[in-house]
Design a protein that fits this description.
The structure is a single chain. The chain is an alpha/beta fold. It is 44% helix and 15% strand. It has twelve helices and eight strands. The chain has helices spanning 16-31, 50-54, 83-88, 99-105, 109-121, 134-138, 142-154, 159-162, 183-201, 203-208, 219-226, 243-251; strands at residues 4-9, 39-44, 62-66, 93-96, 125-130, 166-169, 211-214, 233-236. The longest helix has 19 residues, at 183-201. 44% of the residues are buried. It binds phosphoenolpyruvate.
Length: 252
């Protein structure tokens, strides 16, 4: 049975003390929260806070992820952080291909593919983001866009390798805007993605792949979104910065 995952993407927010307070509050409240046993909570803080956050990770229902990784193994790449470094810190997950990285830092599908390779080589699970911008949705091109992102970013992998990948469908027009995809729009795209995976790797791999929804997911709309059969949880931005909101989403 595929995992339900609620992953918090803190982006470039919080000072060290604020981050420490948030993780503490989250852990305290998680202990008294009844989570479905198949639900995994992942927190993705900025790089400098990974170690502090991973001190709380218990390898069962609370895990830590990075927000980015280098596409290179090691060497003269000033400012970059490698998958080997993350592995040596026992980080479990890493977001790749977020629309902000694609839009502001030129992260192409080819770069996404190399980052995914680095992560898998070093035993991290990639959370690979895909999704269309508003103009593409208005032109009814969302399926072509997502198909290309998934094909070019991931379909060079073997079925074994692919089974470690988590996908996050994040319509760019819904990220940080307060506009959420309707449950039907989310389900339609998630089913489309699962079908692409089934065509490439077979039904078993497709059925075992967790596909998360991201884009203005909040306590008030999470239940409705997650009720869809192909929506296996969420990648949460803004609402992951408040422990109560994030946990309300995790219990949804
Ligand atoms: C995100 O950036 O991955 C995201 C989903 O952000 P938000 O929840 O704030 O829309």
């Amino acid at each position: 049975m595929r995992k339900h995952i609620v992953a918090g993407n803190w982006k470039m927010n919080k000072t060290f003390n604020e981050a420490d307070d948030l993780v503490n509050e989250l852990m305290e409240k998680l202990e008294s929260t009844e989570l479905d046993p198949n639900t995994l909570v992942v927190v993705c803080p900025p790089f400098p806070y990974l170690e502090m956050t991973s001190d709380y990770s218990d390898d069962s229902y609370f895990m830590v992820g990075a927000q980015n990784v280098s596409d290179q193994e090691s060497g003269a790449y000033t400012g970059e952080v490698s998958a080997a470094m993350l592995e040596s810190m026992e980080i479990d997950y890493c977001i790749v291909g977020h629309s902000e990285r694609r839009a502001y830092y030129g992260e192409t599908d080819e770069i996404v593919a190399r980052k995914v390779d680095q992560l898998l080589k070093h035993n991290l699970r990639p959370i690979v983001c895909c999704g269309e911008v508003l103009e593409e949705r208005e032109g009814n091109r969302q399926f072509d866009v997502v198909k290309k992102q998934i094909t070019d970013g991931l379909f060079h992998l073997s079925a074994d390798e692919f089974s470690n990948v988590v996908i996050a469908y994040e319509p760019v027009w819904a990220i940080g805007t307060g506009k959420t995809a309707t449950p039907d729009q989310a389900q339609e795209m998630h089913a489309f993605i699962r079908n692409l995976i089934a065509e490439k790797y077979g039904d078993e791999v497709a059925e075992n792949t967790s596909i998360l929804y991201g884009g203005s997911c909040k306590p008030g709309n999470a239940k409705e979104l997650f009720a869809n059969k192909d929506v296996d949880g969420g990648l949460i931005g803004g609402a992951s910065l408040k422990a109560d909101d994030f946990l309300a989403i995790a219990t949804a």
